[in-house]
Specification:
The protein has 5 helices and 7 strands. By secondary structure, it is of the alpha+beta class. It has a single domain (about 5-160), classed as Aminopeptidase. A 7-stranded mixed sheet has the order 1-2-3-4-5-7-6. Helix 1 crosses helix 3 (about 45-55). The model has no long low-confidence stretch (mean pLDDT about 95).
Length: about 160
C-alpha cells in the first residue's frame, strides 16, 4: 500500500470539534456493543477532549490528509517503559488506506525518542478491524483482561525493538 502524505501533529484547541466527530463516526457502528457508560467514556465529550488537549501528561495527536483531520490518537506514558495508546480512531471514510498504520508508526517513533520499550493499548472484541490493524502492526494479546464500564476489554502490547 502506498504511503499517504500525512501530517501528524499534536492537537490544539481548534481541533476539538474535529476530534469529537472522528470519534463519533468511528465508534457509531459499534455503539450497540457498548454499555452507555462505556460508550460515553470512549466517545468523549468536547469538554473532555479540551481538558485532555490541555493536560501536559497526555498527547492528543491528529492526522491530517490534504489539510483535513482524518484520524486521532491519545497517548500517555504509563510508566518508565510503556507508552499507552488510550484512544485511536480514523474517520470511516478514510479507513483501509493505511492511515492507522502510519499513525502507529508515528507513535512508535515517538516512543523510541523517549527511550520507551513498549507500546500498549486495550481493545474490545467487536472492534475486529482495529484488532486486525494492531495485529498486522505486531501487537500481541497479553491475556490480561479487565472490565471497563461492564464490557470486557483486553490488553495488547508490542515491544519497540520488535517493530519492523
Amino acid at each position: 500500500m502506498k504511503k499517504l502524505d500525512l501530517i501528524i501533529r499534536r492537537a490544539n484547541s481548534s481541533d476539538t470539534e474535529n476530534i469529537y466527530h472522528i470519534l463519533f463516526k468511528a465508534f457509531k457502528p459499534y455503539k450497540k456493543y457498548y454499555t452507555n457508560e462505556a460508550y460515553k467514556a470512549t466517545v468523549i465529550s468536547t469538554d473532555e477532549i479540551e481538558k485532555r488537549i490541555n493536560n501536559p501528561e497526555i498527547n492528543i495527536l491528529v492526522t491530517l490528509l490534504n489539510n483535513r483531520i482524518v484520524g486521532t490518537a491519545s497517548i500517555l506514558e504509563k510508566n518508565h517503559n510503556n507508552l499507552y495508546i488510550s484512544t485511536m480512531a480514523v474517520n470511516p471514510q478514510y479507513q483501509k488506506k493505511g492511515i492507522g498504520y502510519q499513525l502507529l508508526e508515528y507513535i512508535s517513533n515517538f516512543a523510541r525518542e523517549k527511550n520507551l520499550h513498549q507500546l500498549s493499548l486495550e481493545s474490545y472484541k467487536p472492534l475486529k478491524s482495529a484488532i486486525r490493524l494492531y495485529e498486522k502492526y505486531g501487537f500481541k494479546k497479553t491475556g490480561k483482561k479487565r472490565y471497563y464500564y461492564d464490557i470486557e476489554i483486553f490488553e495488547m502490547i508490542i515491544y519497540i525493538n520488535n517493530i519492523h
